[in-house]
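call fold(seq) -> tokens
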Amino acid sequence: MKTGSVPGAICVLRLEGIPLRVFLGSSPRERLFPRTVDVDVSYLLESGQDVPATPLDYDLICSALDGLSGSGYDYVEQLCADIMHLLERLAAQGRWRVTVRKESPPTKPGIQRASFEMER
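ret:
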């Protein structure tokens, strides 16, 4: 496969809805049982950056994220930061964007979901 830069193009690889089971919540009651959160990951190459000679492997990214299964976090922001550090070890050349969605957090009044997004 031919590699190189694509002048004027911003290239984005997006993986959406990666399920991850973690213990998540600011109260001990919330962390009694693991919950599934959805994770979206985007890898961005700016105009003029070379496309990697070895493309990112979807399975490698998903397997790396699965390594966090069973971990405990008080806040989605902490989980998002851990995912970002993990992804930056896989490929540091481009920019990563991570979104974590927590369905039905215990709030009054109730909300459908809370999400946090980080880009670096």
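The two ends are 28 Å apart (CA to CA).
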